[in-house]
Write a structure and sequence with these properties.
Elements (H helix, E strand, L loop, with lengths): L7 H22 L3 H5 L2 H27 L8 H10 L5 H19 L6 H10 L1 H15 L3 H4 L3
Helix pairs in contact: 1-3, 1-6, 1-7, 3-4, 3-5, 4-5, 5-7
Length: 150
């Protein structure tokens, strides 16, 4: 990838957003399920942080795929395009598509949100965001430190 064609400041800023929120989310994910779902404040904070990380990852995604002449139609489609363009491996892209769909449910309220599902993402899905930042850095030919990935 030709690094000068990307806005590295934008990418670093969104990567910082992801890292900051993931750190908070890990704390919620370490709680027992009963304690997490029993606290409406923690649940609301976690839901908001999940929305932030998906939107930050999607901003990175949109920026990169637009440089390749593509325009995704949705948050989930963006991660699918990243796999099609060999920016992400398909397994990771599939898991991020699931996270993007959860974001859509949280934002648009398509149905009652299962907070046990949210908690499961906090326990098991956050390393996918670390992997996302790592694969983006690799695609750009950067070290994780240059992008600020964990």
């Amino acid at each position: 990838m030709d690094a000068p064609s990307v806005n590295i400041d934008l990418l670093r800023s969104r990567a910082a957003d992801i890292r900051r929120e993931v750190q908070e989310l890990r704390g919620y994910g370490s709680l027992p399920l009963k304690e997490f779902v029993g606290s409406s404040e923690k649940v609301r904070a976690a839901r908001y942080a999940l929305v932030v990380v998906v939107e930050a990852a999607s901003a990175i995604c949109n920026h990169l795929v637009s440089r390749r002449g593509r325009a995704p139609e949705s948050y989930p489609a963006c991660f699918e395009l990243m796999a099609d363009l060999d920016i992400l491996d398909s397994g990771l892209a599939g898991r991020l598509i699931g996270l993007a769909r959860l974001r859509n449910i949280l934002v648009h309220g398509y149905g009652r949100v299962d907070d046990a599902r949210v908690h499961a993402h906090l326990k098991d899905g956050l390393r996918d965001l670390d992997a996302f930042l790592g694969q983006v850095a690799t695609y750009l030919g950067f070290t994780s430190d240059e992008l600020g990935a964990v």
